[in-house]
Amino acid sequence: MIHSWWEIQVLCDPALEESVFWRLETFGCRGTASQSQNHSCLVSAYLPEEEAHLLDLAALSLFLRQDALCMEISLPVVEWNLIDEQDWASSWKQYWEPTKIGDLILVYPAWLEPPTESDRILLHLDPGVAFGTGTHATTQLCLESVEMRLSVKPENLVVADIGCGSGILSIGAILLGATQAYAVDIDPMAVRSARQNRKLNNISPEQMKVEQGSVEELLQFVHEPVDGILCNILAEVIIDLVPKFDAIAKPKTWGILSGILLDQAKPIADTLEQHGWIVATLWKRQEWCCFNIRRS
Ligand SMILES: C[S@@+](CC[C@H](N)C(=O)[O-])C[C@H]1O[C@@H](n2cnc3c(N)ncnc32)[C@H](O)[C@@H]1O
């Protein structure tokens, strides 16, 4: 069966780019990518046809225009077209390039010939329809925090990756020295993508277990509390998940939470405090922030 996708393209002022990413992500888009075009920015994003009606797309366009009006910048041009899965695969891949993250990782598109020599650890990735190419600030903040946490070379470190998307955080953690990662995502397409990327990076299914679900499902296969929790999901979802972290945490467990807009930081911090977590550091990039947390 041919699967059709909406290709949504937004030509906007670069100042609007982060809002556009956020709106598209909230809308449920996958494979979001951007490229510079003269003094503008072209953001492309993809969504299965059955997940949006024309009216939804029109409303999205209206929100994007309202965002630009509030920021007093030029209005974006928003267009959408239906394309089939094969076109989708080639459409967005052309915009994605190898991306350095932190001091150690180089995220490398799986369809490009890898360099024979590199002073970085190569993380091979084909996210398919899943979120997590490494180009988004929220993923970068997470991976940089993982690098910082693992710089002390801990032994037998186990992480849980909630909302794994392409698996980029679990794979990154293992390449940086974690012994074991448990990854879950409610989206079956993300589960498929994370498993494929695990294979691309020569990681065994035992070392990186990937299952469909969330914290509840994680509990069925994680029998010991983990050392680190990685979670890059929208703030509203994180607020619901924080009370469930207890079940997989021990007194020294740390967490890295991303996907949080700066103006959502306070409710997240309050929720964490109410559930026995301390915000150790808060890293910012553009309008996003990433919480490094530990038990109080
Ligand atoms: C922003 S993406 C993050 C992907 C990847 N971890 C990264 O850092 O780039 C968020 C992912 O969380 C998943 N998700 C959303 N709500 C969830 C929940 N309650 N439990 C588990 N996964 C969830 C989505 O399907 C999506 O793949």
TrEMBL record:
The record's section on CDD domains has: AdoMet_MTases (cd02440)
Subcellular localization(s) per the UniProt record: Cytoplasm
Q: Which GO terms describe its biological process?
A: methylation
Q: Check the UniProt entry and state the signal peptide residues, or none.
A: none
Q: Cellular component terms, GO, for this chain's entry?
A: ribosome
EC category:
transferase
Transmembrane segments annotated in the record for this chain: none
Could you tell me one molecular function GO term of this UniProt entry?
A: methyltransferase activity
Q: Where does S-adenosyl-L-methionine bind?
A: 139, 163, 185, 232
The reaction(s) annotated as catalysed by this protein in its Swiss-Prot or TrEMBL entry are: L-lysyl-[protein] + 3 S-adenosyl-L-methionine = N(6),N(6),N(6)-trimethyl-L-lysyl-[protein] + 3 S-adenosyl-L-homocysteine + 3 H(+)
User: Coiled-coil annotation: which residues?
Assistant: none
Q: Which Gene3D superfamilies match?
A: Vaccinia Virus protein VP39
The cross-references to SUPFAM superfamilies, in alphabetical order and at most eight, read:
S-adenosyl-L-methionine-dependent methyltransferases
EC number, UniProt record: 2.1.1.-
InterPro entries under this entry? Ribosomal_L11_MeTrfase_PrmA, Ribosomal_PrmA_MeTrfase, SAM-dependent_MTases_sf
Which keywords are on file for this protein? Cytoplasm, Methyltransferase, Ribonucleoprotein, Ribosomal protein, S-adenosyl-L-methionine, Transferase
Main subcellular localization, coarse class?
cytoplasm
Family of this protein: Belongs to the methyltransferase superfamily. PrmA family.
What does the UniProt function comment say about this protein? Methylates ribosomal protein L11.
Name of the protein this chain belongs to: Ribosomal protein L11 methyltransferase
